Amino acid sequence: EELKPGFALIGEVLFGDYNLIVNDDMLHSCTNYECYKGIYSSLNSMNLFEIAHSLNRQYGPEQWCIYRGKHLMNFVDNHDVTRIASILANKNHLPLAYGILFGMPGIPCIYYGSEWGELGEKAPDNDYALRPSFEAPIPNELTDFLKKLISLRKNSDALCNGGYKNIVITNHQLIFERKSDSERVLVAINASDADLTANHGDFNGTCTDLLTEKTHVVRFGRTAEIQCHVLENGLNKTPCKKPAHPKLAFRCTGFFIHYFSLYIDATLLQELFQSLQYTSYGNPDPDNVSYPFL
Q1: Residue 30 near residue 40, CB atoms below 8 Å
Q2: Is residue 50 a contact partner of residue 174, using CB atoms and an 8 Å limit?
Q3: CA-CA distance, 269 to 272, in Å (whole number)?
Q4: pLDDT band, residue 215 (cuts 50/70/90)
Q5: Which one is predicted more confidently, 200 or 251?
Q6: Cα three-residue angle 146-152-155, rounded to 5 degrees
Q7: How many alpha carbons fall within 13 Å on the CB side of residue 3?
Q8: Do 38 and 49 contact (CB within 8 A), yes or no?
Q9: Of 27, 65, 216, 266, which sees the most CB atoms within 10 A?
């Protein structure tokens, strides 16, 4: 760094304790193969507890979490492994994988060609399929989406430097928080083919959707609807059907990854509060009432 300020040394390792080589005396960063495997594996098995566990183990708020303060190099594919567009069982999950990549702590890395969903499977005896020569880029809507995520990441202190905390975890959904001293961002991933209404006290306050730049105010926010989307030309675009009782849900707008845009108008707010007085969910006091999943 004395010769070239900003110079970084990054190592490539498959497993083990990254602290042994990423420290003040050795490397600035190294490849995060633990979360590489967790991203595609949790989506293929429809078990987002796997990646949520890995992320919390590495960066969570507890004192025992092992890589807090470090910036590991994260990826969903590289020159040595099958490309993400080939390894995912459900191609609708391709944007979800990149949503996790750009939402999690560390340094996101995109392998050339994968920004437009290039296919490539690792062979037993060679890696030729992983390292093709392209005469020219083949950008598409996925490329544009990744450009948006890159821009959001570069301009977000929480996404670049903030801590990590799991908020809501199910087999098919994950909502996690990135928070710094100046900013708080919520990332929501829905791998299901149906919408989910998630409940948590953290879904409250004034929120801005970083994808649409729209600001919404939630005065009584305890639920957030995570919409599923259908892949169209390489990008999540088409929302699935709404819940049967939309007035009981706060709905998120935008794509699968919401930073969190929640809204409800005054009429729906009044209907929501009144409806809770005639259910079996207990005291209508907002601090004590339980909310149903729809």
Answers
A1: no
A2: no
A3: 5
A4: confident
A5: 200
A6: 140
A7: 2
A8: no
A9: 216
